[in-house]
Amino acid sequence: MWPKGLAPAGLPPINNFTVTFEKQGTYDYLRVVHPCMNGVVAVK
Description:
0% helix
């Protein structure tokens, strides 16, 4: 996400987004900009 004023040149700011999980389970994720930052979403 790129808050207003911090987006790289030529890219629009992204202040929020939505992800919908349609199945139960665990989903790993990582940040592309900071790959050492990751986590898991648990959908019940």
